[in-house]
Amino acid sequence: MAKILIPTPLRQFTDGKDTVEVSGANIGEVLNALTTSVHPSLRNNLFTPEGKLRSFVNIYVNDEDIRYLDKDATEVKDSDTISIVPSIAGGR
Amino acid sequence: MSTTAAPATSLTNEEILRYSRHLILPEVGMEGQIKLKNAKILLVGTGGLGAPMALYLAAAGVGTIGLVDFDVVDRTNLQRQVIHGTSDVGKPKIVSAEESIAEINPNVRIIKHEVALTSENALDIIKDYDLVADGTDNFPTRYLVNDACVLLKKPNVYGSIFRFEGQSSIFATEDGPCYRCLYPEPPPPGLVPSCAEGGVLGILPGVIGLIQATEVVKLILGNGEPLIGRLLLYDALNMKFRELKLRKNPECPVCGTNPTVTQLIDYQQFCGVAPTAETAKAESTVIEIEPTEVKAKLDRGDQFVLIDVREPHEWDIARIEGAKLIPLGDVPKRLNELNPDDEIVMHCKGGVRSAKAVGILQEAGFKNVLNMKGGILAWSDKVDPSVPKY
Residue B384's pLDDT band (boundaries 50, 70, 90)? Predict the structure, then answer.
């Protein structure tokens, strides 16, 4: 199962967990499993009602952005680390 | 600001002594220190990130530092904004910052811009500087700084923080990506809490601000491997640094091959902060009650229920006698604890979360629900000053 790193702002939707392990052959399957059966309350924060990944959330497989790989179809291996990186604006 | 002064070609004896530890580094040396002396950098914000940046860049000998801030020092700033001290509370941040910088290094020329950075003034303010370091705290200003830097071709040394986590990168260099390549659009308002709502570890902006300061100095010196095309992530709780690849997006609306944003836009509107007819309508259906009125009701022994929708750790800091705690996130699943026929007053810290809670109850058919205006902060101001503000 691939390891998904959950960023601080989204941990309130994963019972405080900073990593979650989910199986799936590609990013689409992994994120779908994460946001339906594992932590359904994440869904609204990662996807628009139309099911599109929100544009202030980036997904990386290891250190590469899936927008520059195969997007949803990006293959995921058990040894991969998936990062969810939402934008944050704090500075004060 | 005057930019006509001829660049410095030497250091005074005082400067040579002051910068001794730089001068004996071959990577800096006389040449590098003179570059620092001639550098003009703009710090947007003198808060959590701006404070350590300003202090260290001044100490390092950056010759001209512009500061943009229109805020006043507040006691809650002192936990992390180390450029301001206890005696500065109530003072404009820009004045307090100037005094601290002058004490650390009187050789630094400080240019104060005591304004909010806007689409109208940003290009004019930024154009005279070599580079910008972004230490703001909101999405509209971050997109504004990014777009202005891309349009003016000024590198933007970026940092942002949330709770225990920080990000840093360099945007808007000639061939590198910009903030919009990373995040094309901001989150809708309310989905990502600010530091004021979410809290922030006081040391975190020190770490991220000094990563920004390091990159500023490297860009000025033209030395080392700058944080361009890389997004650095820092997790203070787990003490982990990670690095992700960041690419220039050819379809980026501002720095791509066919840009659609060729001048500054309305960033409040872009970030959805400007009120729309829909949100204004939603807000208008929430009826407010003054804290003094709530106090009178309690004193009279009126039949009503006072609900505090803050988090348990906030309840531990301060609470109103007679209130019942139901955190906002739990309200939908704990509706059965409330009676739709009762009069219900809801409060939080400042009145925003309780307004959302009132909306949830109204949607569930509760008719007689009020929002206490200004939350427990207003209660402390207007009813009971013994309740601490936080």
Answer: very high
Q: Does B338 touch chain A (CB under 8 A)?
A: no
Using the Cβ of A89 and the Cβ atoms of chain B, whether some distance falls under 8 Å is answered with yes
Res B341 pLDDT > 80: yes
Q: Are B208 and B159 in contact (CB under 8 A)?
A: yes
Asked if the model's pLDDT at residue A8 lies above 70, the reply is: yes
d(CA B209, CA B33): 21
Enumerate the residues of chain A whose CB falls inside 8 A of the CB of residue B186: 56, 87, 89
CB contact under 8 A, B159 and A91: yes
Residue B178 has pLDDT above 90, yes or no: yes
Instruction: Look at residue A37 and give its three-state secondary structure.
Output: helix
Q: Which of B330, B337, B341, B331 is nearest to B365 (CA)?
A: B341
Report DSSP letters for B123-155, one per residue. Answer: HHHHTTSSEEEE---SHHHHHHHHHHHHHHT--
B280-296 mean pLDDT:
84
Report the predicted TM-score, pTM, of the whole model to 2 decimal places: 0.89
Looking at residue B276, its pLDDT comes to 56
Give the H/E segment covering residue B275. none
Instruction: State the average pLDDT for chain B.
Output: 94
Tell me what ipTM this predicted complex has.
0.92
User: DSSP labels for B332-351?
Assistant: GGGGGGS-TTS-EEEE-SSS
Q: Which residues of B touch A89 (CB under 8 A)?
A: 136-139, 142, 160, 186, 192, 194
Task: List pLDDT tens digits, range B4-53.
Answer: 578 999 999 999 999 999 999 999 999 999 999 999 999 999 999 999 99
Residue A7, chain B, CB below 8 Å: the answer is yes
- B209: closest CA of chain A, how far (Å): 9
Residue B207 at interface with chain A, using a CB cutoff of 8 Å: no
Alpha carbons A38 and A58: distance in angstroms, whole number: 20
Which of the following is catalytic: B149, B178, B181, B195? B195
Distance, CA of B343 to CA of A46 (rounded, Å): 37
